[in-house]
Amino acid sequence: MTLGAGWALKAGCLAPWDGRQYRTLCYNDIQPLYTGRAIDRGTFPYIHGALVGGELTDGAIEYPVLTGIFMWASGSLATGPDSYLKVSALLLAPFGLLTAGVLTNMTGWRGLLWAAAPALVLYGFHNWDLLVVAAVVGAVWAWRRGLTLWSAGLLGLGGALKLYPLLFVVPLVLDEWRRSRRGGMQAALVAGATVVAANAPFFVQNPAGWWATYAFHRLRTADFNTVWAWGWPSAGAEVINTVTLVAIAASCVALLVWAWYTTRGAPGFPWLQVSAASLAAFLLWNKVHSPQYVLWLLPFFVLLRVRLWWWAAYSLVDLVLYVGIFRWFYDSAYLGLDFTPAKVALISAVWGRAALLAMLIVVFMRAPAAVTPLGVVQLSESSHLLRKVGEVGSGSSARA
User: Could you tell me if residue 241 is inside a domain?
Assistant: First the structure.
């Protein structure tokens, strides 16, 4: 039902783009990139592409290789931008359904926090992020069954779809390392080998076309979805790259170190908690925060036992942000207006979301896991974290 509502929303753009894509909130990245990335010409991505004058040309794509291949393959079944949206939605929908099924299989009713999320309506067919979310949730499913190497491989595949799953590799390796140092090393090798195997053919054929993806992002300044755009608009690309990279790296390392020392003696490592908190830090500090990135965060509201109101608050702020972005685009491009209620909503939601992300870093680290490995009798890793940060209540630890 949610995916059906998502299609009904985006289907409003199956018509000439005359401003309705912003006015009716049906905008998606899929239709404009059909021609914008040479998909309409059947150009195989990366092999012939390059970055020329800061623009991606001849099959270069701003996403990692497996997303680019999916874009090209689905484009081979389409006959135009509208057809491309239809084909893409049809091919993406199973990944949304698969994610819902796997989450519900692991957590029961909590799967509704994914399946019934407003964000799934807004972004299910906005971009290609359902692919990478399914890979991450599949990695958790494999880990729960003791298939750590499969989990590492799925995170590697996720990193070849969108980069963020690579944030979860080190916490997974540390979790396995505490049980078996050999297993931890194997997990690291599998994740790394998977990423290399996915990227190597393209790098060998055309290093410049492969690197164009990352060179393109290096040249970008902070986008309007971030606090940097509104709090430090004069920062150039080089400065913002350095600041955001340092902030993200420092946050992730601090979370890893803190979790490692506060859970000494535990039979595992709080993989889910640290991964969720690292992602929140990444989203907080990154210079690019596309609206559909909320899909990346949603599964962690399911996988960790956070209070429902955090999910509700984040969903509400994200909805305000979505409406604000595209109504402001319409006001600016078609009405010639700038500082409108839509822009106020956009700016307010950007700062509100940043505040929520900062708090969620702590909330995720404190939360008991809703998923633990099957057949393993142990205290939840999160219970050790909870004791260290002073949360009271042995009952919640026992339930975890």
Answer: yes
Q: Structural domain of residue 268, as residue ranges?
A: 222-392
pLDDT at 256 over 60: yes
Quick check: is 330 in a domain? yes
Measured distance CA(236)–CA(232) in Å, rounded: 9
Closest by CA position to 153, among listed 129, 133, 174, 169: 169
Alpha carbon distance 181, 197 (integer Å): 24
Global pTM?
Answer: 0.93
Helices 129-144, 81-107: axis angle to 10 degrees equals 20
Cβ neighbours, 10 Å, residue 117: 23
- As a whole number of angstroms, the distance between CA 31 and CA 16 comes to 11
Query: Structure tokens of 55?
Result: 């623009």
Q: Count Cβ atoms below 10 Å from residue 15 Cβ, excluding itself.
A: 12
Task: Give the side-chain half-sphere CA count within 13 A for 274.
Answer: 29
Question: Does residue 107 contact residue 370 with C-beta atoms inside 8 Å?
Answer: yes
Q: How confident is the model at residue 16 (pLDDT cuts 50, 70, 90)?
A: confident
**Residue 268 included in any domain:** yes
| Locus of tokens 């399911």 | 302
Predicted pLDDT of residue 383:
42
Phi, psi (deg, nearest 5) at residue 50: -165, 165
> What 3-state DSSP class applies to 380?
coil
Mean pLDDT of 226-245: 95
Domain count, the chain: 1
Q: Kindly report each contact of residues 19-25 with a partner whose C-beta sits within 8 Å and lies 24 or more positions away, as own/partner.
A: 19/330, 19/333, 19/334, 21/326, 22/326, 22/327, 22/329, 22/330, 22/333, 22/334, 23/326, 23/327, 23/330, 23/334, 25/322, 25/323, 25/326, 25/327
Question: What value does the mean pLDDT of the chain take?
Answer: 92
Residue 396 has pLDDT above 90, yes or no: no
Whether the pLDDT of residue 398 is over 90: the answer is: no
Q: Within 13 Å of residue 371, how many CA atoms lie on the same side as its CB?
A: 29
Task: Report the helix count and the strand count for the chain, using DSSP H and E.
Answer: 20, 2
Distance CA 398, CA 383 (A): 8
What single-letter amino acid sits at 266? A
| Structural domain includes residue 265 | yes
Neighbours of 4 (CB within 10 A): 11
